[in-house]
Amino acid sequence: MTIADRVRYPEFLSRVMTAEEAAAMIPHGVNVGMSGFTGAGYPKALPQAIAARAKAEHAQGKPYKINVWTGASTAAECDGVMAEAHALGQRLPFNTDPIARKAVNAGEIDFIDMHLSHVAQHAWFGFLGHMSIAVIEVLGVTADGLLIPSTAVGNNKTWLEIADKVILEVNTKPPAKMEGMHDIYYGTAIPPRRMPINMTHADDRIGEPYLKVDPAKVIAVVETHKGDRDNVFATPDENSNKIAGYIIDFLAHEMKMGRLPKEMLPIQSGVGNVANAVLAGLLTSPFENLLGFTEVLQDGMLELLRVGKMSKASATSISLGKDACKDFEDNIDFYRERIILRPQEISNHPELVRRLGIIAMNSMIEADIYGNINSTHLMGTGMMNGIGGSGDFARNGYLSFFVTPSVAKDGKISCIVPMCSHVDHTEHDTQIIVTEQGLADLRGLSPKQRAQVIIDKCVHPDYRDQLQDYFDRSRQQGAQHTPHILTEALSWHQRFMDKGDMRG
Asked: SS3 letters for 122-186?
């Protein structure tokens, strides 16, 4: 299939050019909105050309950096190549690329970590500055000039609206039959003109199948034929399966107690091996006709759809491993009727998360004894990936789980500590913490009650006595609402920095 087959709007065919020619239109220092959300739907050709241009400019002693805004993470061939070429000045709102991460932590890239539901509206409010150019991957263009979205919607709607100029990357690799899978909502507005979003079920369609763009803005069309980043998910290990089992048993108990409806509530799941283990566990659970309302549809949720455990799934991105991607492409007619891809300002909208009663499951780096959560920083200062959408769901979900193995680095790091070295989610937003050791239900508990439950249920045996001792001694001094020994609260982290092991 050629670009002429995908671009049915004649005016745009006259603007087809190489990625190198298009990259020459992006000046130094501008804000560029790019498509992409969790390794899906990102531009494949333009970042490579931008990186090559940056290297050429730098070789001549000239400055060349751009500020890149996306939906979430992209891939090595996008963030990675631009970071390696020192072409990134500022980056938001999320990143998983190791080269870019190193540059962020070295202070070379100014990284802005944001709630994913905030990005579009902050851009609209003008809080982030002016966007000069949007680079958006699409699957094609209709005869009427409407854009067929790709495997991720993310912030593309907003970028197309606010950017001065637009470069389209038409990717002929994803199946053309994805057309019609998307639901692009155009009813958002800036205060005080906002209106309620008319959505009461996770599978409601409230928008249109296409993205809109002012044709006069489109300065270049670039062809590419390349799939998204292959996501490699390991087979769930023993710890992941234990965590999944605790969560599924808890949900069954909540249903038995009448705190969950028989039909279950929509499920949001973060990305990774633990999340996939939970989804795999749902395959043999007693729950039927599940609904997904999440950011990223990954392998586990696709399998739930395939076997009929889940009836519909709403997301903003499809990010799959190699085998799952082939299944998706081979059975696109089946999945097109069961998957809805939306802008992330809808998939992550706090009002909708609360209204629909989402059951949220997200990973963390560490938790402290009172339930504060660090999702982003290693040892307090090193950025890992970003907060992503976890805050959108944690504060507003009907139930909110934070999950992690109890230890890291072969037991040298405890993921439950006296005090978090960085806080992304306060104790007020945390309901349930789960490790392979057990599940701590923190609902309705005071801080000291939460601390004891977390120590008893979630801490690895190598650290349990040590943490109990800290808590007991903290209760012998100072104010007793949330007792701490300030001279020791971060000593575990310092011990690891000094000796490579948190164990005393």
From this structure: HHHHCCCCCEEEEEEEEEEECCCCCEEECCECCCHHHHHHHCCEEEEEEECCCCHHHCCCECECC
> Are 52 and 78 in a shared domain?
yes
Q: Within 13 Å, how many C-alpha atoms sit on residue 95's CB side?
A: 31
Q: 248 with 347, same domain?
A: yes
Residues 137 and 207 reside in one and the same domain: yes
The answer to whether residue 272 is domain-embedded is: yes
Q: At what angle do helices 447-458 and 461-474 cross, to 10 degrees?
A: 160
pLDDT digits (tens, 9 = 90+) for 302-329: 999 999 999 999 999 999 989 999 999 9
Reported as a single tens digit per residue, the pLDDT across 52-110 is: 999 999 999 999 999 999 999 999 999 999 999 999 999 999 999 999 999 999 999 99
* CA angle (20, 21, 27) in 5-degree steps: 90
Is there a contact between 14 and 4 (Cβ–Cβ < 8 Å)?
no
The CATH number of whichever domain residue 186 belongs to comes to: 3.40.1080.10
Same domain, 172 and 307: no
Q: From the candidates 295, 303, 427, 436, which is the catalytic residue?
A: 295
pTM beyond 0.85, yes or no: yes
Q: Model confidence over 345-402: pLDDT tens digits? A: 999 999 999 999 999 999 999 999 999 999 999 999 999 999 999 999 999 999 999 9
**86 & 212 share domain:** yes
Is there a catalytic annotation at residue 295? Answer: yes
Rounded Cα–Cα distance for residues 185 and 444 (Å): 37
Residues 243 and 146 in one domain: no
The model's confidence at residue 407, banded by pLDDT at 50, 70 and 90, is very high
Give the end of a domain, one of 202, 224, 246: 224
Which domain covers residue 411, as residue numbers?
238-499
* Domains held by the chain: number: 2
Give yes or no: residues 251 and 292 share one domain.
yes
Distance CA 93, CA 105 (A): 15
Q: What is the spatial distance between Cα 71 and Cα 159, in angstroms, rounded to a whole number?
A: 10
Q: Are the beta carbons of 357 and 265 closer than 8 angstroms? A: yes
